[in-house]
Design a protein that fits this description.
With 273 residues, the protein is α/β, with parallel strands linked by helices. The chain has a single domain, classed as Metallo-dependent phosphatases (Purple Acid Phosphatase, chain A, domain 2). The protein is built from 6 helices and 13 strands.
């Protein structure tokens, strides 16, 4: 099986990248199943109901998230019935949505688990992801051996600890949240594909997909200002994980696909923005 994971989609530029390139990438790379991190799909912070539905229609089979999952009010109610949208499994029990699900890819089953790290997230206080995943695997392993874990975490130390914690137990542990595509993709000896940063889908000429001038001012002045997405140098980033019949990873490949858009100004912003 070949599984495409799309790095965090940032705003309408990121959604545009998926719309313009996903079908072509799926065919060229013989993709069987598609996962995308949608934690910034709506304005760069969170994902709304309409964007989740649209991305699903474009061909994204599973949408993962992070600390921004409940930022858009309509997602709080929509996630209950949208089985393809995942929130972190280590959110409090009873929170809307689900932290993992088992999907079908043809005649094969694929489990996707969403976890949130504990370092650097001051607005949320979640259960220990290292303990939570052990309980989840006891249930999932009875149904499929192909298990993809999206670990939405801030630090490489926490991500690498999770990599080795799950080595040989899951197909892949893919790091998200930092919106930077890292150069450490590999398959561990136990057959688990890992990468600390799966990148972002949106503007490369930016600060995490957001307007650089605004983000600079926020750091310099310490005054809050609303961030804005930018359209400069668009790229769809992520990885392709290849598995064998036993659910072990046999390869992981970096994906970087440029996306052309014409109706923007010299700063990389669409005219209507």
């Amino acid at each position: 099986m070949r599984i495409l994971y799309i790095g965090e989609i940032v705003g309408s530029p990121g959604v545009f990248c998926v719309k313009s390139r996903l079908a072509e990438i799926k065919e060229e790379k013989s993709i069987d199943f598609i996962i995308a991190c949608g934690d910034g799909a709506t304005g760069g912070f969170g994902i709304g109901k309409n964007h989740s539905i649209y991305l699903h229609k474009l061909g994204v089979d599973a949408i993962t998230s992070g600390e921004c999952i409940y930022y858009k009010k309509d997602m709080v109610t929509h996630i209950v019935k949208a089985s393809y949208v995942l929130r972190a499994a280590n959110y409090p029990y009873g929170n809307p949505g689900r932290g993992w699900n088992i999907f079908r890819a043809g005649d094969q089953a694929v489990a996707v688990v969403n976890l949130l790290g504990q370092s650097g997230f001051n607005r949320v206080h979640l259960n220990n992801p290292f303990l939570m995943i052990q309980n989840i695997l006891e249930k999932i392993s009875e149904e499929t051996r192909t298990i993809i874990v999206d670990f939405h975490a801030s630090t490489t130390a926490e991500k690498y600890t999770m990599f080795y914690h799950l080595e040989g137990k899951v197909t892949a542990v893919l790091g998200s949240h930092t919106k930077v595509l890292t150069a450490d993709a590999c398959v561990l000896p136990g057959g688990t594909a890992v990468i600390a940063g799966t990148g972002r889908t949106g503007s490369r000429y930016s600060v995490g997909g957001l307007d650089a001038e605004i983000e600079i001012r926020k750091f310099v002045t310490q005054i809050h200002e609303q961030s804005r997405v930018t359209w400069g140098d668009l790229e769809l980033q992520g990885v392709v994980v290849e598995t064998d019949a036993e659910g072990k990873a046999v390869g992981i490949e970096i994906v970087r696909e440029a996306c052309e858009v014409e109706d923007h100004d010299g700063a990389g912003n669409r005219q209507e923005d």
